[in-house]
Amino acid sequence: MRAKAMVVVDGGKPAAARTIDLGHTGMSVAMGHMLQSGQAGSVSFEMFVDGKPIIITCRAKVTHCIFSGDEVKVGLQFVSPDATAVAAISKFMR
After folding, report:
1. Which residues, in sequence order, are CB contacts of 33 under 8 Å at separation 6+?
2. By Cβ atoms counted within 10 A, which residue in 1, 35, 55, 86 is the most buried?
3. Whole domain around residue 61: which residue ranges?
4. Looking at residue 70, what DSSP letter applies?
């Protein structure tokens, strides 16, 4: 899944990101700067489900962060996603 995303770590400013991959329990994004493993925050992104755009916002925790060329790949694990987010992601994954 390729879409624009916004990552906000607790106590930090919103940072633009681009989605790379999406799963039931988390996602990976590309960003312009490093984050620390274990940092908590939230991620927001838009996805299309049944032809309609849906904005998903989930609490997330950074699981890993690696340099990849001129950007950084960040793994995010969803933390207690709400039922709407779970349903939308499940439909998208089918």
Report:
1. 15, 72
2. 35
3. 4-93
4. T
Residue reference for tokens 């309609």: 52
What does the pLDDT look like over 8-30, one tens digit per residue?
A: 999 999 999 999 999 999 999 99
| β-strand partners of 60 | 41, 78
Tell me which residue has tokens 């962060």.
Answer: 65
CATH number of the domain to which 74 belongs: 2.40.10.220
Neighbours of 45 (CB within 10 A): 21
How many structural domains is the chain composed of? 1
Residue entry with tokens 């681009």:
18
List, for residues 73-89, the tens digit of each pLDDT value. Answer: 999 999 999 999 999 99
Structure tokens at 78: 């969803």
Tens digits of per-residue pLDDT, 33-59?
999 999 999 999 999 888 899 999 999
